[in-house]
From TrEMBL:
It comes from Streptomyces echinatus. Residues 166-264 form the Pyridoxamine 5'-phosphate oxidase N-terminal domain. PANTHER family: FAD-BINDING, PUTATIVE (AFU_ORTHOLOGUE AFUA_6G07600)-RELATED. It comes from the Bacteria. This is Pyridoxamine 5'-phosphate oxidase N-terminal domain-containing protein.
């Protein structure tokens, strides 16, 4: 399969960026280069996205560990050491051949790296044989200069939700970052979405919307949604470690003025207090962030 499937091509043509997308697409490869391997080994956080093999729901989940828990163990192989808690992605991460998307994002340097491929469970976690490896620009990434591991933080009990409660709505409305997992017939992907707090709108207890800001013209996420509307969202509290994982369906809307928005309908959510052991410093918002219309 080429760099782009039919869904991404359809969106590129609709927006008129096919030539630019072809240029950017040349940066995608299968090899984990030396600089990418060095970047991975410094990260305490990896976000993984996949479809549950039983229900078919797409989820995004945050995995954490001491730097080195994610590392390149071959020219096209990334290995991850994980604990026992995987939430709604537990079955996917234990199933050989699962198509997964991953993103390692470092708020300290505003760098991100994506690696998508096929999963193999291992004795200590899992490995991914890469189909796509690439980096993105720092646009819309908020800088967080440091992190710590607070003593005594213990994950709370996860709660399954069919609609957003007040704390979940508050987390979304205050978010400056979330992660979007999508799938297509040949694979999976996780992307980063960032903006000033208020850029994600809660339009009902089961519906969200956010603007699709101008990016790298590849349209991997929107292209996937064109082919398959299943999606998973991950919101995290960078201070308390609380996570909100959502699964449902999403669709992109294209306005005559060239702006775009995505609307998401919730099927199920997991709310886990103190799920992550990391506490990050307050953000310095990206200068690329457009003003958020919090009243929309």
């Amino acid at each position: 399969m080429g760099v782009y499937h039919a869904g991404s091509r359809a969106v590129q043509d609709l927006v008129g960026v096919r030539e630019r997308a072809d240029h950017v697409g040349r940066s995608l490869g299968q090899d984990i280069k030396v600089v990418a391997a060095a970047f991975l080994e410094l990260q305490p956080l990896l976000v993984v996205g996949a479809a549950d093999p039983g229900t078919g729901g797409v989820w995004a989940s945050a995995l954490t560990g001491a730097p080195g828990f994610v590392r390149a163990t071959g020219p096209r192989r990334m290995s991850v050491v994980t604990g026992a808690r995987h939430g709604p992605l537990a079955a996917a991460l234990a199933t050989p051949g699962t198509r997964v998307g991953t993103i390692a994002l470092d708020p300290r340097t505003r760098r991100r790296m994506r690696l998508n491929g096929r999963l193999t469970p291992t004795a200590r976690g899992f490995a991914v044989e890469a189909d796509q490896v690439f980096s993105n620009c720092p646009k819309y990434i908020q800088r967080r200069d440091s992190y710590e591991t607070p003593a005594g933080r213990t994950p709370g009990t996860s709660r399954r939700l069919t609609g957003l409660h007040a704390d979940a709505e508050a987390l979304i409305r205050s978010a400056d970052t979330f992660f979007l997992a999508t799938v297509h017939p040949g694979g999976a992907d996780v992307s980063h979405r960032g903006g000033n707090p208020g850029f994600v709108h809660v339009t009902s207890p089961r519906e969200l919307a956010w603007p699709d800001y101008s990016g790298n013209a590849m349209f991997l996420s929107l292209g996937n949604l064109r082919a398959d509307r299943r999606a998973g969202l991950l919101f995290l509290d960078w201070d308390t470690g609380t996570t909100l994982q959502l699964t449902g369906e999403a669709r992109a809307e294209f306005a005559p003025d060239g702006t775009r928005a995505v609307r998401f309908t919730l099927a199920e959510a997991w709310w886990t207090p103190a799920a992550l052991p990391l506490r990050w410093s307050p953000p310095e918002y990206s200068p690329a962030n457009p003003p958020a219309n919090v009243g929309e």
